[in-house]
Amino acid sequence: MAPTSLHQCPAPAKLNLFLHVTGRRPDGYHLLQSVFQLIDKSDTLHFDLRADEQLVRTTDVPGVPAEQDLIVRALRALQAEYQRRHGRLPPGIDVAVEKRLPMGGGLGGGSSDAATALMAANHLWQAGLTDRELMGLGLPLGADIPFFLFGETAFAEGVGEALQAVDGPDCWYVVIEPGVSVPTAAIFTAQDLTRNTKAITISDFSRRHENPSGLIGFGKNDLQDVATRLFPPVAEAVEWLSGHGAARMTGSGACVFCAFSNEQEAEQVLNTVPAKWKAWKAKALMRHPMKSLLQINEL
């Protein structure tokens, strides 16, 4: 018998170990290269099938109306695809969200929530879409959604949708939330954004490294200079954390991270973070935990 609910579904954060802007397409989208790393800091989602066909977010998310929420939009896209394939609508779903990841933090929280929703609904509805088909549904909604559906450390190109599995560091991170929300559009539209970093190949990225900080030191984040200019708290966090290793901003900001070889080292640094910032530690994940939860085969 098909399940009618899925609770305690993780939607993990991601870090960009580096992020290069290598060009710009005629439609205005920027061409990127990055390595995406999952970490074990997550939002948690709960799904329950309804007796009608409505898609309802049952919890309030401050600043995100339900109609604009990527979760709801992703479920609608899958619902429409289900109807196209089966000639009828699937049951509706109630979605409750425990939000732990900050918005405007560069951790991919909204995209991760949407990806988890697609995986959960595909399972509950027994829709039968492959990971790649779900990635195709998710991409128009957000460039990071395909990565979370891909579900492992990935070398990303294009606008972030061209993904190849790559070995990342097995390490711990200290992440600082500088207390500001950075709008992605403000970074990508800045006149002084570097848009011509030379493209690299996947082999240029070190597949194994004994020193995680050295691996995180690979490349740079081309968005960081703009973000630190526009948002001084980000610059301050980068400067402080750089005293403990190769600190870097993730995504378009605002969160800043540094890698450590083990949990004890991360804990020691975490204990010294100034009280004005929210900070936490997280472990690198090699595989999206929803894959195990749903026993989804790898791509």
Features:
single chain, 299 residues, Ribosomal Protein S5, domain 2, Alpha-Beta Plaits, 2 domains, 10-stranded mixed β-sheet
What is the alpha-carbon Rg in Å?
A: 19 Å
CATH topology of the largest domain: Ribosomal Protein S5, domain 2
Tell me roughly what share of residues is in helical segments. 25-40%
- Which structural class fits the helix and strand makeup? alpha+beta
- Work out the number of β strands: 10
Uncertain segments are: none
Largest sheet: 10 strands, mixed
Calculate the mean pLDDT score and round it. 93
User: Could you give the order of the helices and strands?
Assistant: EEEHEHHHEEEHHHHEEHEH
Ends apart, CA distance between termini: 26 Å
CATH class of the largest domain, named Alpha Beta
What's the number of domains?
A: 2
**How much strand content do the residues show?**
25-35%
What is the overall number of helices?
10
Specify the overall morphology.
Answer: globular
Reported CATH architecture of the largest domain: 2-Layer Sandwich
